[in-house]
Amino acid sequence: MAEEKDEIQVERPEEETKKKKGNKKLLIIIVAVSLVLGAGGFAGYKLFAGKGGDDTADHKEQKTGKTVIAALDPFVLNLSEHGRYLKVTVQFELSDNILEETVKERTPQLRDTIITLVSSKSLASISSPEGKFQLKDEILFRANQIMGMEKDAFKNLYFTEFVMQ
Known about the structure:
Blueprint: H1 2-64, E1 69-71, E2 75-78, E3 85-94, H2 100-105, H3 107-119, H4 123-127, H5 129-147, E4 154-164
Antiparallel strand pairs: 1-3, 2-3, 3-4
Helix pairs in contact: 3-5
């Protein structure tokens, strides 16, 4: 009888370790499958959701036929340094073609803002590419403020002429 009890006790720990190993393998498989499915779902969402938004924006531009650009007359400005001049031509890319008439009405305010901003700059601050990008951002920000709309009226700004002396 004592021998039977020893055999029963010896068999139980082996069965328990087999069950634990089986449970660990099952748990690892479930976690791995969940991670793969989650990552695949996330990647699919990012790919298809991102393209869906871009496609609708592309379709809107195709329906209108063209991007609307509002050009301002060239500026000849004194820079903040004595004897330094800048000739610049600016063109705004509009976010909607309906805004074209509003931009024409607000041209004096836009020109005033650009003159005030650019004439306060030094030659060194706008001669580098980084300085030009910063100037673009500042002009674009102020121009959108002038329009006073909930969304930005101008998508981008282009310098079509930029001559310093």
